[in-house]
Specification:
- One of its GO terms (cellular component) is membrane.
- It is a single-pass type I membrane protein.
- Belongs to the nectin family.
- It holds the Pfam family V-set.
- This protein is of the alpha+beta class and 429 residues long.
- Among the domains are: 97 residues, Immunoglobulin-like, CATH 2.60.40.10; 91 residues, Immunoglobulin-like, CATH 2.60.40; 87 residues, Immunoglobulin-like (Sandwich).
- The longest helix has 38 residues.
- It starts with a helix and ends with a helix.
- The structure holds 2-acetamido-2-deoxy-beta-D-glucopyranose (NAG) (6 copies).
- The site of one 2-acetamido-2-deoxy-beta-D-glucopyranose has 5 residues, from loops.
């Protein structure tokens, strides 16, 4: 930066070079990081050496190698290279207890040393998920806990709900040199959680290739919910009709029960129940009625109803050009559709009423139009009446009228006045 510090820096550099040149023998080492179970190479180098011996010793100050001579009986420790410029040893099958400060000594007078720290990474064990006792019931609060032992430094745990990350609560405890990490997830399960996979992944420096993970697939039991799907939309006499009882529940509600107007199906020759489906081979007008499908499991019962109305078969003309014998709503699927039954709703959907609804709408529209027209007429007549009878209002009305130059202004001014508004109302009653 400034000249002074630059000068000092230059001096130190020159001094360093001189020192090396003159008495210049230094052991040079590097810190080493190794994963538990791996092999660590400890290298000590000297740039200038007059055949002075190098030595490696462990954190307990025991000599491992003195030059190429092995000093400690430990099969895991081997010589890699020994020369006047280098002493490299390897420690295989490293354990956490191998961690510490290693010393390389150069036996000059005086002895020069360099220290290298061997860091051993603890590999996290395969995580385990617990806290889930199969199966859960819809509405349950459950806590999934993922735990991994043996990491150093402490591992990170991440949760995924079907590949999408969700946040858990992490807790780290030290046990000896390693850490036990736990992450928990609070869940309020519903039917949408049934079959969902929750995965706990371990993030750690020692896990380079294969990520450690555990997965728990939730099983959630829930009461059935049924729905009737039908085709065709407008059933006609003689036609084939299929009513499908779509039921969802866990455990699966099997079989489903079909009834007509509260009792058993009357004609099992033409009404065929197969699995969840009810099919009519050839519709007859006598088939009119409310069909109900009911599904039950140990958590509850659900039912759906379908009101069948069999229309006349097209006789004279092809169906495409024949106007329907009864008024058919524009979207019969929506109108005649199955209705998932709610115990509180009592189903009574007379298809005849659907036609009447159309007429009713037209009628109501007409009545509303007439009422609006009459109201407008009344307002106009009333306005004229008020203008003619200004005298009455001059006496009855407040401020607005007093300082108005003429009757019209008086009425305008008086608008918004509460008394006037009330008086006006009386005419409408
Ligand atoms: C240690 O050194 C040997 C010999 O140079 C080499 O084959 C090996 O890959 C090294 N191991 C590590 C972990 O660096
Ligand atoms: C170092 O030792 C080797 C062999 O032991 C010898 O040939 C060499 O001259 C020695 N070098 C010095 C600088 O003493
Ligand atoms: C080596 O590790 C020790 C202990 O962790 C640390 O104090 C030192 O700064 C490290 N040296 C280098 C060169 O990273
Ligand atoms: C961590 O330690 C606390 C207190 O000793 C204990 O309650 C908790 O269960 C421990 N957690 C783990 C993950 O071991
Ligand atoms: C409908 O049922 C009645 C009585 O069972 C029968 O007489 C009639 O022929 C049937 N109609 C059709 C179209 O099948
Ligand atoms: C079926 O409904 C139609 C229309 O309401 C009606 O004409 C017919 O008589 C009904 N048949 C029975 C058996 O209820």
């Amino acid at each position: 930066m400034n000249l002074k510090s630059h000068l000092i820096f230059t001096l130190y550099t020159v001094y360093g070079i001189l020192l090396k040149g003159i008495s210049g023998q230094y052991p040079l080492v590097q810190n080493v990081t190794v994963t538990e179970g791996g092999t660590a190479n400890m290298t000590c180098r000297v740039e200038y050496n007059d055949n002075t011996s190098l030595q490696w010793s462990n954190p307990a100050q025991q000599t491992l190698f003195f030059g190429d001579k092995k000093a400690l009986r430990d099969n895991r420790i081997e010589l890699v290279r020994a020369s006047w410029a280098e002493l490299t040893i390897s420690i295989s099958d490293v354990t956490l207890s191998d961690e510490g400060m290693y010393t390389c000594s150069l036996f000059t007078m005086p002895v020069r040393t360099a220290k290298a720290y061997l860091t051993v990474l603890g590999v996290p064990q395969k995580p385990e998920i617990d806290g889930f006792t199969k199966p859960a019931v819809e509405g349950d609060h459950i806590t999934l806990t993922c735990m991994t032992h043996g990491s150093k430094p402490a591992a990170d745990l991440r949760w995924f709900r079907n590949e999408k990350e969700v946040k858990g609560a992490k807790e780290v405890n030290a046990s000896g040199k390693t850490f036990t990490v736990r992450s928990s997830l609070q869940l309020h399960v519903d039917r949408n959680d049934d079959g969902v996979a929750y995965t706990c992944k371990v993030d750690h420096v020692a896990l380079t290739q294969t990520p450690q993970q555990a997965t728990e697939v939730l099983e959630v039991h829930y009461a059935p919910r049924v729905e009737i799907v039908h085709s065709p939309a407008v059933p006609q006499e003689g036609q084939y009709l299929k009513l499908e009882c779509v039921s969802k529940g866990n455990p699966s509600p099997d079989p489903v029960m079909w009834t007509k107007d509260g009792s058993e199906l009357p004609d099992l020759d033409r009404m065929i129940v197969e699995g969840r489906d009810l099919t009519f081979t050839s519709l007859n007008k006598t088939d009119n009625g409310t069909y109900r499908c009911e599904a039950t499991n140990h958590l509850g019962t659900s039912s759906a109803e379908y009101i069948l109305y069999v229309y006349d078969a097209p006789t004279t003309l092809p169906p495409s050009t024949t106007p329907p014998p009864h008024p058919i709503p524009p979207d019969p699927t929506a109108q005649l559709g199955a209705r998932a039954s709610d115990p509180t709703v009592t189903g009574n959907r007379d298809p005849n009423a659907l036609g009447q609804h159309g007429t009713d709408h037209a009628l109501i529209g007409g009545v509303v139009a007439v009422v609006v027209f009459v109201t407008l007429c009344l307002i106009i007549v009333l306005g004229r009446y008020l203008a003619r009878h200004k005298g009455t209002y001059l006496t009855n009305e407040a401020k607005g009228a007093d300082d108005a130059p003429d009757a019209d202004t008086a009425i305008i001014n008086a608008e918004g006045n509460h008394a006037h508004a009330e008086e006006k109302k009386e005419y409408f009653i």
